[in-house]
Amino acid sequence: MTRYEQLAETLARQIHSGAWGPGTRIPGTRELSRLHRASITTVMAAQRLLEGWGLVEARPRSGYYVRGAALPLEAPALPEAVATPGAPTLVQSQRMALTLIQATQRRDVLPLGAAVPDVTFLPVAALNRALGAAARLAGDRAGGYDFPPGCPELRGQIARRMALAGCDTGPEGIITTSGAQEALTLALRAVAEPGDVIAIETPTYYGLLQVIEALGMRALEVPTDPLAGLDPEALAQALARWPIKACVVVSNFSNPLGCALSSERKRALVTLCAKAQIPLVENDIYGELGFADQRPLAAKHFDRHGNVLYLSSFSKTLEPGLRVGWIAPGRHFDRVAHLKYVSSLATPTVPQLAVARYLEQGGYERQLRRARAAYARHVELMSAAVQGHFPVGTRISRPTGGFVIWVELPEGADSMALYEQALSERITIAPGPLFSATGRYRHCLRLTCAQPWGAASEQGIATLGRLARQQLEVG
Ligand SMILES: Cc1ncc(COP(=O)(O)O)c(C=O)c1O
After folding, report:
1. What is the pLDDT of residues 44-77, one digit of tens each?
2. Domain end point (choices 308, 342, 364)
3. Residue 12 belongs to what domain range?
């Protein structure tokens, strides 16, 4: 990044954090030059960049002033929730997800489309050391299968993490998996058959929709409040009407809404599922990434009958490429262990040993604290930029953890077209219909905030805003 981009970024951050209110003059060229020890040319280039981002406007012979829309004085409105449960439906049109993920991996794009943290947020060096040590020290074991339930050292460490979420599963209740994605597949295969109805949040993580589609099951979208999460009453209504076989929920900091269920909702959900005798699949992959100090409880904490299949992974907190996840399937343990064996025989040994070693060494809490603070800040910066650059009437989720935001454009916008237009400007986004079994959310999109914040991000959001405005003008 050049010096003037750095300066523009610093000033943008100050504007977003409220250092100068809308309509206020920012310090003049000479003053900025003195304050930031930058040349007049650098300051002028930075001012022009800020103007290009729509953050300030030049007033003749007076200087640069903060534009009204640039500052999030009021929190933007929340996205609208679906009002009533849908009908069961086969999931379609998830093919595009792989294309999106592949586009997101291109080195020349601004990857706002995938929920993958940039490596700068991850403890890569420490994990590389742990991987090296695991391969060296494990000797023959490193090259052999680690059959289900998987690596005992790792299950011991995971049991400790789960205890912090209020679950007393113990190592013996845990099966390691190749990420949360495999755990999700195993959970659904263990408790339902093709054609069965699975109750899900809406909008929901598209990887879940892909599993439901691949297994030939049907999805039923249950109204989900953007702040409070899946509504247990709406689930009760759906249960009374449809032969639901299982319910899947991201209990803490869901993807894409970023909301967490309160303890009351978790308890209500667990009780409701137990009464209806349907298993609850709890995906807690973002549970350790809340913005508050206290880690929230898992829904499994309230489970008295082994009815909750809890799953998670280290993909969001350590590295997704390790492919280390787990499932604590309660009373479905034997079936899940068998299915895991049939599906991939074992989870790779060295990554499991490396994660166990990393967790033993005690740097994880510090890493989590750093990541949580960074994600909270980046969500704030991204939301402010969206509010500043996107069309009037845009709604934005208010995550309390994780690192994605859900953006609802005014009706008439088309996020599938926006995806293509953005890609030609080398930006990826995740278009709304991917998050629905029924093609809802055409005017919505998800953006990931776990990217280093800088001139490119601000510029990228400005470009997306311009494209969205153009769509609405043409429409
Ligand atoms: C809610 C949710 N579940 C599961 C996954 C997949 O996790 P993993 O990489 O551990 O398979 C993701 C990744 O985006 C996710 O957001």
Report:
1. 989 988 876 667 888 888 899 987 644 444 678 8
2. 364
3. 3-70
Cα 51 to middle of ligand 1, angstroms = 38
**64 and 136 share a domain?**
no
Residue type, 346: A
> 83 lies in a domain?
no
Confirm or reject: Cβ of 235 under 6 Å from ligand 1.
no
Query: Do the domain assignments include residue 404?
Result: yes
CATH code, 274 = 3.40.640.10
Q: Is the CB of 148 under 6 A from ligand 1?
A: no
- pLDDT higher for 292 or 49? 292
Distance CA 177, CA 183 (A): 6
| Mean per-residue pLDDT of the chain | 92
Three-state DSSP at 98 gives: helix
CATH code at 386?
Answer: 3.90.1150.10
Rounded average pLDDT over 11-25: 79
Q: What CA–CA distances, in Å, run from 56 to 23, 31, 264, 356?
A: 9, 17, 45, 50
Structural domain total, the chain: 3
pLDDT at 274 over 60: yes
Determine the residue type at 252: N
Task: Decide: 283 in ligand 1 pocket, CB within 6 A.
Answer: yes
Element (H, E) at 308: strand 308-313
Instruction: Round to whole Å and give the CA distance between 342 and 345.
Output: 6
Ligand 1 atom nearest to CA at 181: 11
Pocket flag, ligand 1, residue 313 (CB < 6 Å): yes
CATH number, domain of 23, equals 1.10.10.10
Residue 243 phi, psi dihedral angles, 5° rounding: -80, 70
Answer yes or no: is pLDDT of 183 > 90.
Answer: yes
Domain boundary among 364, 396, 411: 364
In this structure, the chain runs to a length of 475
- Quote the pTM value: 0.86
**113 and 65 both lie in a single domain:** no
Residue 53: predicted pLDDT: 67
Same domain, 332 and 466: no
